[in-house]
Each structure stands twice: as structure tokens, then as C-alpha cells.
């Protein structure tokens, strides 16, 4: 992936998140504290500023900046994205990629992010968090790699998996985060963090390489 | 109440937190100062003492900046509305509070705070600062007794901050300040009731809706759903529900002396708060418990939510002495 | 907001005032005591000093009981919601505050208070107690400058109480305490803004209605109509409107030092209050005035009304020294 | 008037005021502080208690008790009624009435009350207060006396005059009390104090001697 394409994809993700601010607040109001759309919009603003402040730099450098920007919003979602993105930056940095970008690399990134996020938040798939959208991405990319899909199709499959994963959280009872104290009453609406992650994955996949 | 957006006296919603903190520091420059934009520290910090860092999301004003001052906290780390401050902000607060004897972080038990304060502690440790933490878990409505460690922190924060801050001011070691904080937290239980919602600036809508004449018992201080929705009741009945839930959670009442704190969530009048206090005190005394210290007012709010919470702390001589010790923060003086 | 009845944490609306005062005295028995059911007096009253009696209708909590204590008022006379206390209640407060050097009554300028406090003063005089009075008239929105003596008293009350109370505590004569009170009142101007209504318990409906997104500038602290209804604006614009009206009313700024008090009316969050404070301070400084003392919070509320007021007091060394003098009431400590 | 009839009339007035609590609050909300119905209902409660506590006693004694009860609610209306009623009690006490009750005595009472109320509140007819309902009562009783009306008819005429007087305040600009700072904006609704006084006069007149 060229850094130009990477920047375009990041901006598309920022657009998508900002456009869904109210909807994400509504989802978070269900079993949380109603701020997820605002927090993600603040994150998108920080990300735009980081992009503007770093016109140069490699992919890993850029992703590190984005990680810091996402982390700067705090809350639960800040450290989740920061840790996931830092793990991705680390993956891309070492060993230096042989090719511009391929599905194996994408898979390695997704796996690293999942590990980092479950490490920091002590959640696992099924707990009704971001991980319920991220874990299906890992599975979809594994599948894409073994069936030899190209990067654009792999990304598309990943985005679809994230969306389905996010939707599947509606039926779940939360076991992590703010909603985890509600038991049965946390059922009914999809998890806001999983939903915003699916939006981001969808936006990343709209631009083809 | 309908779900129309609340009217707020703010400018750009995204600037609300920074502008409010700027106003706070300008208004109270005799007590506090900025360490950096989201870190408020006490003026004339005590040296040779353990540092106390408090903090959390904004939208709870006067928490947390209102508890920075001699005898309470050394620094407050402020996040966005209802969002924990990020690790770098907490780290800056830790550094400002550190005088070489270590730092205790005290904050309410929320996933975001746990992650961000935890990361900050790791960063501080890497710089050679010893950091311990106490997660306040006073909200009995947020988890059953067997999962007490998973409970949320609400107005009990204030009691824990005050006791830990007094212990630090008196020169206790980090381990002892931590012990006092743990003891204060274990001795403290709260439960709240919401009468109407609040709205995160920029969210465009209230966080939840309650029907006309409906209340929610056990609601969290960020509008997290509670344990029971029902009709509006007389204050004395509400007080009894809250107090009975708190008393039922206590195994050993010690000598039966308690501090009673009634916390207004934002929109509920002082008139109502004092009526609720009266009802809670009666319910406690009917339950055989004696109220020896009282606090009534807005200590940790949920923006403009209507409602209140009741906090009860079992007191022995040690906790009482720390609760009574001198303090001169903006919101809490003793 | 629609006109649905507000949800209140009260019992029988007719008992609200007595229950709230009972709660207040029980919670703060270290500072205050009952003289009789509607008269709250300071514990350990100073002897050989002029007595300061304050009071007015209820529904303004923490006013007026919150300003009883060493260095401020000796007694507060409490009326029904938004209704002056009757003469016998004021008389009981006067008697409790009298230590043989006379009593100053300080209250907001409302027809009911003028009549009831006036009758009480006559009754006290008949019993040989010398009584003077100061009617606070700080609300610039309530009458034009040429009728300044007809203005209402709002949050400026607090400044007048504090200065007069400090003067009394320092042993000044009744004439001198009265002079300080008059001077503090002349130096003080306020203006408020309402964002939503309040509801007198038992009235069954809010006192007024404001449309969604509508505010009212200059509204009184009991919901009396103001001078301008208009769209909700950014806090900085509201602050500027209020400050400009206040500055325009001042002929002589003295040395240009002022105290700035931002008073929350009840439902408006501290977050908003501090943002409004910031805007008001900027507007004042843009107008060439320097803010040297600041107070932000709920000092005199209108039940659960949303909104706030801005109060500006021109300070010279004399007023500043009384404003800074020690005080230990429940709501105001210095 | 027998004290039994006096007590019945007072209770009828208390009933009337309590039944109009919301309406009186609504009128006071217009240019005042919205509490007049609550304050008058509190006054009615205090009056009932005073009656119950004083089963014996002459008319003037009873009226003195009622004056204290009305005064106990404070506000603007408390001292207005207290001073008016104390003036009436004084009028009835000295000289001792020759007859059980007559129109001349009623007129003397109304005049005494009007004087006392304008003395304490410094208002005059036209200022949009209680006096705009009370002053027409004085005029109507003068008229009743000169035309030789009986007491029941005189009371009826007085009640009608009070009602008309109260209605006439709609068009007035307030020059006394809380509403006096509103200028033009105090026009439109009738004065709450004049309206409650008219209700009371109406109730007093419903029972015939
Ligand atoms: N421990 C955790 N592990 C993974 N994701 C989490 C965890 N806790 C919360 N989240 C995610 O964070 C989302 C909430 O984000 P946000 O509303 O911004 O934070 P907050 O809960 O602080 O208000 C949840 O929907 C969930 O997806
Ligand atoms: N100075 C006055 N003289 C005569 N009547 C007055 C005066 N001031 C107020 N009132 C009467 O009192 C009424 C208001 O009563 P109420 O609402 O109970 O008192 P408050 O103004 O204290 O809330 C007004 O409608 C008016 O009729
Ligand atoms: Mg949230
Ligand atoms: Mg949050
Ligand atoms: Mg009133
Ligand atoms: Mg009124």
C-alpha cells in the first residue's frame, strides 16, 4: 500500500466515523454512556490533525502517529485503538516488507492488533466489544490468504466480516467495558465500539489499490 | 421531559472541557494551577509526601479538579466528557504529584480509566516513579456483592480522595496511604437515582429517556442503566430504597457510626437534596446506624442529570480522623 | 422542554420547606441550630457584636441558611417557597441575632420582603431592639438606572451578606455595618439568563415556558419575566450581553478591580458555569476591568431552573478586606 | 352576622381558594413568580387550622385569628390580608355593634381594610393589586348603603364589584409588587391577588344570613 493510499484510506475512515456520530452515540446510550460517537469524532479530528502535521513519513511512522492520535481521546476506545495500531506499526516495521503490501501482511497486522487489544482490555470474542468485529476480520483474512485472494478482495471480505461481526453483537450480553454490569439488559443493540470499527473497515475497503 | 436536546451555556461542544478547566483555574488561581492543559495541580504542593493523583472523564464537575488542594489531591488528570484521560495526561499528573515518595492514583473503576491509568503507571514506573492505585467501587447497584471488585465508582470517590489525601498530607508512606484508601473504599457504599437524563455535548440528544413520572434506581453517574425503573415516589421512599440496599450490602457495621453523603447529580435542587438527606438519615437511624458526619451538595455530577445518590461510609477512629483532617480544595474544605 | 411537571425528590409539597430546613440543620449541626422551625441561627454566636439577619423565601437553597455562620449572618428567617417569611418569623430571627448592639436586616428588594421585614422591625423596635435594614438591589435588568432603588436583589445578596457580616464580626457599630452594606450593595450589579423554568412545589406546572432553543435574558430569580427573549447563543455571547449591561450601568469604575461571581440557578451544570465564568471574565477584561476575586457555583438558586447570573462588584481596599475576612458558613467559607 | 355564619363563610372562602390553586398559580406565572395559588392554599390551610383551634370567641376575636393565619404565609399577600383583617377586627370591636350586622358596618370594615392595605403596601387603585378588587367593593357598599339594600344583596353587589374589579386589572400595567418591574409586559392577565380576593368575596356572598 502506498502511503498516499494509506492516507486516503485513513481520511475515508475519519469521514465515515464523523458521519455516524449521532448513530454511534445512540448505540452507546443503550447500555453505555452515550458518548461513543462524540469520542470517535474527536478521534477523527485528532487523526486529521496528525495527518496534516505529518506530510512525510513511512507507513509505520504514519500509523504510529495515528495510534497516538486515537489514544489521545482516552476513554475505553482510545487505548484499544492505540494499542492495536501500535502493534500494527510494529508488525509493519520488522521485518521490512518484501513487497508493497499483501494479504499475508494484512493478516499479520490484524492478528497483532487483536492480540494487543485483548492484552490491554482482557476481553475475548463474545464479550461484546471491538473484538467481536476484529476477530472475524482475522478469520476472513486467513481464509482470503489460503484461497489466494488479492488484496482488494481480501479487504472487502474483511470489511464484510467486520460488519457481520458487529451485527452479531446485538444478541450478546456484555462481559467487558461499561455495559458489562447490565447482564441481560445489555442485549438488544449492537456494541458501539464494534459498530464503529466495522464502519472504519468498510471505509478502508472502499478505496482500491 | 421529552428528548429535545438540552440547552447548554457552552460554545463549541468540542471546546467545552478545555474552556471549563480554563475557567476553573482562572477562578481559583489561589488554590490550583495548570501543569498542562488537562492537568490541574495544587499551588504550593507539599514536599516530602506521597503524591495523590485523581482524575477521570469530564462532565462530573466539580469533580475532579475541585478536589485538588492541600490535604486532598496533588493533581487531577482530566479527560473528555465521560472519557478517561489518556495515558500521557495521567503521566503528566503523576510527574507533577511526585515528590520522590511515590504516587497513589485514585479513580473510579471504569474500563477506560483502568486501561489509561494503568498504561500511565507503566510509563511512570519506566521513569522510576513508584505508583500504586485504588479503584473506587462504591456503587452497590453496579454488581452483586460477590463481584464487589467489579463495581463502578461514584460519589464514594470523594470519601476515598479525602481520606487518602489526608493520610498523604500527614506524611504516611505510599503503602500506608494505599492501605487507608483501600480501607476507605471498603467502608464506602453508594446508590443513586436518576430523574432525568443528561446530554454529552455534541451528542445531539440526551443519553437516555425517562418517561414523565418515571425514575431509575441504581443508574450510573454517566447515565449507565440502573437496576429498576419505576414511578416517581416520595423522597422518603426513594431514600429508604437506597439506604436499605446499602445496609443490606454491609456484613459488619463496626460500631455503627457512619458518614452520610448526599450527592446531587446536577439538575436536582438543593431543596430536594436536603429532603433526601433527611429521609436517608432517618432510614439509616431506623436501621440502627448513627450518622456522625454529613455532606450534602453536588460533589460529582453527571452534567445536568436530575437525581441524586446516597453514600454511606462506616467510620472507625482512623477513617474519621482522616475525614476530619484539614483540607482546602475548591470543593471540599475541612 | 415541554411544560410537563418537573420531577422532584420531595414528599408532600406543603412539607418541602420544613423538611429541607430540618435536613439542613441536621446535616450541619456543627455550624447552625434551630431557634424555631423557620429560623436558623449560628452555633456559638459572637457576643458584643451587631447582629446580621438575612432571609427571604425558600426555593433559593443554599440561600439563605447556607450563609449563617461565624463571619457572616447570625440568623436566617425562612419563608415558604418564593414567599417572604412572615413578621413573627423575622422577629424571632432578630431576637436571636440581637446581642444588645442592634441588628441589621439584609434581604432582596421584593414587595413581600419589604412588608414583612418592615413589620418585624417595628415589632422589634417596640421591644427595644434597634433595627436597620439594607435591601439588596443588584439586578440591573429589573429597573432602569434612574430607578435603581426599585431593582430586585439576586446573587448580589451574597456579596452584601459577606461584607456586612464581616464588618459586624469585626465589632463595627450598627451604623458602620449598615454603611458597609450600603456600600457593598451600591458597588454590586448582576444580570441573569434563564434557559428553562422551575416549578413551585404544589403548583403543578412550571412557572413559565421557554421554547426549545430559546433563552430569556434578565429573568428574575423567581422566574419573573426578563428583558429579552431570544435564541440560545454561545456562552461567550451570553456572557458578553450580561457583562456589557452591567458595565454600562457603572459610572465610576474606581480603580477597576472587581469581584466576579457566577451563580448557577439550579439545573445548569458546573461545566457550563465555568465556561460562562471564562466568557464573563474575558468580557470584563476586554472592558478594561480586572477580576481579582472569583466565585463560581450555586449560591442562590431558583429551584431547578436552568440558567445562571453574573455579578460584578467594584472593589476598593475596604470592601476587599471584608470580602476576604474569615467566614465559616455552610456555603461560604473564607 | 352570627359567628356560626361567619365561620361558614370563611370555610366557603377557603374552599374557593383551594379549588382555584392551579389557576391562581397560572395567573401569577404571567408576570410574577407562579406561587400565588400555592400561597393562598397554604393560607386556606392555616385558616382552617385557626378555625378548628378556636371553637369559641367573638367575631372580632375570630377575625384576628384569621388575620394571623393569613399573615403566617408571608409573601406579599400575607401582610396584605393580615393588615386588612386586623383593621376589620378593630372596626368591629369599637364601638360595639348595635345590631348583629348591617351594611354600614360592612362598609366601615371595607374602608378600614382598604386604608390599612394601602398603608402597608403603598399602592393605590390602578396599580394592579388586590386594591383594584377591594376599592370597587367599598364603592359598591357605599352605593348599597345609600340605596338601602339589605345585607345579603349588599354582599352580592360587593362580590360582583370585586369580580369586575379583578377583571379590569387585565388591562392594567402593574405599579406595585413583583410585576411592577415589567412595564407593558405586565398587561394581559388579571392580577392574581385581585383575582383571589374576588373569589373570596364571591364565596362569602354565596351564603345568605
Ligand atoms: N475491555 C475492553 N476490551 C475491548 N474493547 C472494549 C473494552 N471496554 C470497552 N471496549 C469497547 O469500547 C467501546 C466503548 O467506547 P467509548 O464509548 O468510546 O468508551 P467509554 O466506555 O469510556 O465511554 C465499547 O463499545 C467496546 O467496544
Ligand atoms: N404593595 C402591594 N399592595 C397591595 N397588594 C400587593 C402589593 N404587592 C403585591 N400585592 C398583591 O400580592 C399579589 C401577589 O401575591 P403572592 O404571589 O402571594 O406574593 P409574592 O409576590 O410574594 O409571590 C399581587 O397579585 C398583588 O395583588
Ligand atoms: Mg461510551
Ligand atoms: Mg465514556
Ligand atoms: Mg412569591
Ligand atoms: Mg407570587
How would you characterize this protein structure?
- By secondary structure, chain A is mostly helical.
- Chain A has helices spanning 3-19, 21-31, 36-53, 59-71, 77-93, 103-121, 131-146, 151-168, 192-206.
- In chain A, helix 2 crosses helix 3 (36-53) and helix 7 (131-146) packs parallel to helix 9.
- The mean pLDDT of chain A is 93.
- Chain B is of the alpha/beta class and 334 residues long.
- In chain B, the strands form two sheets. In chain B, strands 1-2-4-3-5-6 form a six-stranded mixed beta sheet, sandwiched between helices. In chain B, strands 9-8-7-12-10-11 form a six-stranded mixed beta sheet.
- Chain B starts with 15 loop residues before the first helix and ends in a 10-residue tail after the last helix.
- In chain B, 67% of the residues are buried.
- The interface between B and C is large, with 67 and 66 residues.
- Bound molecules: adenosine-5'-diphosphate (2 copies) and magnesium ion (4 copies).
Q: What's the gyration radius of chain A in Å?
A: 16 Å
* Global outline of chain A: globular
Helix content of chain B: 25-40%
List the bound ligands.
adenosine-5'-diphosphate, magnesium ion
| Tally of separate helices of chain B | 8
| First-last Cα distance of chain B | 38 Å
Helix content of chain A: 55-70%
Spatial strand sequence of the major β-sheet of chain B = 1-2-4-3-5-6
Query: How would you classify the helix and strand content of chain B by structural class?
Result: alpha/beta
Element-level helix/strand string of chain A: HHHHHHHHH
Uncertain runs of chain A are none
Whole-number average pLDDT of chain B? 95
Portion in beta strands of chain B: 15-25%
